[in-house]
Amino acid sequence: MGEDIMVKVIGLGDNVVDKYEHIRTMYPGGNALNFAVYAKRLGVSSAFLGAFGSDKESEHVQNTIHELGLDISKCRHFNGENGCARVTLENGDRVFLGSNEGGVLRENGLNLTQDDLEYIKNFDLLHAGLYGYTEPELDKVKALNIPISFDFSDDFTMEEVERIAPKVNFSFFSCSHLNADEILSLIIKTYKLGSKIVLATMGEKGALLYDGDKFYKQKPELVEAIDTMGAGDSFITAFLVNYISKTKENKLEKGTIIKESLNEAAIFSAKTCLIEGSFGYGKKY
């Protein structure tokens, strides 16, 4: 996939370490970094632009990224705490216990420069999310005419949706906590606000996507999850990478591309549930 036409994507925003308190092990993660790592695993060229702290947690994330060969040449470095979350597992399901709300990223922001924007212009897609402190940057990126995808996660407010959805092409929501009517009305509202593709993941009920013409439902691939951390991020990444690659190849009609991309996303997401942390690389602390 993507061999003929090189696709380049970038994750903008958060990197964290997820500290699993029950085993005293930290794993690299964060929505924007997960996206970049999963995209690379799916065979496309990917980069991450975020902020690193000056602690051992940051060092572990950066060492892992160097090992994976991701481009982080434009990242910020600040004195202070790297983004960090505290987590435990209950029967394979990740449970968040608290976080430092992004650490140095929250304190300093990204403040994209003209140089950064020239760099970002070369990508086929930029992915950001609710925890990446990227909202002040979205207008600058939108002006570059690059498709933007945004992960609203599960604790979005309707005010945030109303502000952000008009600026992005793809909107993603985690909706396990909502009923069917609430999900439908959220999807249609977000589409009307300007997002061209809106996707809600619903845990074991699968996913529902709307493209303005029709709804597409995707059943999950069921596995005995070792760790659900990263399941949503990997679903989103595989969907986007497949969708962008196949659209660029321009050989299939849109409905077929969406169906194939959703199917690939379900398969890839299931595999992620068999890995500890978002993508492995655990280190004792």
Topology:
Layout: E1 8-13, E2 16-20, E3 25-29, H1 31-41, E4 45-52, H2 56-68, E5 76-77, E6 84-90, E7 93-99, H3 104-108, H4 114-120, E8 125-129, H5 138-142, E9 148-151, H6 158-164, E10 170-174, H7 180-193, E11 197-201, E12 207-210, E13 215-218, H8 231-249, H9 254-272, E14 283-284
Helix pairs in contact: 1-8, 8-9
Describe the protein in words.
It is a single chain. The strands form 2 sheets. Strands 5-4-1-8-9-10-11-12-13 form a 9-stranded mixed sheet, sandwiched between helices. The protein has a 5-stranded mixed sheet with strand order 7-6-2-3-14. The protein is globular. A hairpin with a 4-residue loop joins strand 2 and strand 3 (25-29). The chain has helices at 31-41, 56-68, 104-108, 114-120, 138-142, 158-164, 180-193, 231-249, 254-272; strands at residues 8-13, 16-20, 25-29, 45-52, 76-77, 84-90, 93-99, 125-129, 148-151, 170-174, 197-201, 207-210, 215-218, 283-284. The longest helix has 19 residues, at 231-249. The mean pLDDT is 95. The protein is of the alpha/beta class and 285 residues long. It is built from 9 helices and 14 strands. The protein has a single domain (8-280), classed as UDP-N-acetylmuramoyl-L-alanine:D-glutamate ligase. Helix 1 crosses helix 8 and helix 8 runs antiparallel to helix 9 (254-272).
